[in-house]
Amino acid sequence: MTSNTKRHSSPRRPLPMGIWALGFVSLFMDISSELIHSLLPVFMATTLGASMIAIGFIEGVAEAAAAFAKVFAGAASDLIRKRKSLAVLGYGLAAITKPIFPLANTIGWVVTARLIDRIGKGIRGAPRDALVADIAPADMRGAAYGLRQTLDSIGAFVGPVLAVAFMLCFGDDIRKVLWVAVIPAFLAVGILIVGVQEPERPPIGGETVKSPLWFRWAKQLPRLYWLIVGLYTVFTLARFSEAFLILRAQSVGLSIGYVPLIMIVMNIVYAAVAYPAGLLTDRIQSRIILIAGLSVLILSDVILGSASTPLAVFAGAALWGLHMGLTQGLFSKLVADHAPVSLRGTAFGIFNLAGGAATLSASALAGILWSLLGASATFFTGAAFTFAAMTGLIIYGFLYPADKKPAP
Q: b vs e for 277-295, b when ≥16 Cβ sit within 10 Å of the residue's Cβ?
């Protein structure tokens, strides 16, 4: 306890420049991705004639593809001991898909682009998250993940802002607006190549490194790590694709040109909360913050399920962003703290695989519920899953005990 008090009361050191560079990479790629994603559900539903079930399935499959790629990329980054090269590959794949969206004339083209884009996200995700832990000091991981999430979220609301502005400029011509997304995507790749230096990772005290692609490596991950994965999986079942926030706004009468404002509101709140929440997780028990985040998500789902006006949807989206800011960086910190250093990439890969499988199930279920029972059923079901996750967290109150020290 004494050492913790001294550490927390000492002046805070600045975060390494590599963390800032990774944050700006996320910012520019999210400007590109969210500009597209804020219009893509409407583009699929109106221009290409996709059904709600098809949209839910496409979104779920895309996120699941990312998750499966993450588990192998994370393991590969442990095996070859090079994370940056995999991150460059992943961001590069995402960048080259951006021109496909405005060129798409069928759902097949959109599915192809989304899959390649999300596979790119999967390839970069676990190595990048592990790279943050490699660069940041152990007592600053909450702040490091919080900063990256904040910059990521700034990009996530700048993208929809640009979508609204260019929709007005181009007279609601979605295809023309989608071309704008190409520039920041390639800028992100350039920053990653030039601005991030990967630290050397010497072998850890006598550990024998075998191929982490072997599933028996999972046995080396501690029980506390698996509790975190289990909680995150249930939590993710409650948090289907944000495409349904956009569709909810349209369903209550928000004009197509202003639908991206939903993502702007959500991500403004997300960006404002993520870094302060990250700083807080370096100081207090994670369980308290997680319970707060889950409570906010329940309230968001209830408001969105009951919404009959655009104003109510904006309120629900703001609360959605609040829960994201409280929880997303925190889960990454928990994984980094409780995974062995030599298996950190693998741990992030498995963690994201579980979340991706849950996202696939949640998005497919959301589309089916929406089509059969209406929008309200989709969001009220999300609230029920969130309550289950919060109950499990309270029961397993030892999720992040004070006497458990994070990995260096």
A: bbbbbbeeebbebbbbbbb
In the chain, what are the domain boundaries? 17-198+219-395
CA 188/CA 23 separation, integer angstroms: 10
- C-beta of residue 304 within 8 angstroms of C-beta of residue 244: no
Model confidence over 134-173: pLDDT tens digits? Answer: 888 877 888 888 888 888 878 877 888 888 888 888 887 8
Angstrom distance (rounded) from CA 93 to CA 223: 35
Those residues whose C-beta lies under 8 Å from the C-beta of residue 2, and which sit 6 or more positions away, are none
CATH, range 17-198+219-395: 1.20.1250.20
* Alpha-carbon radius of gyration of the chain: 20
Q: Collect all residues with Cβ–Cβ distance below 8 Å to 9 and sequence separation of at least 6.
A: none
Q: Map residue 59 onto helix, strand or coil.
A: helix
> Could you tell me where the beta strands, DSSP code E, fall in 100-223?
none
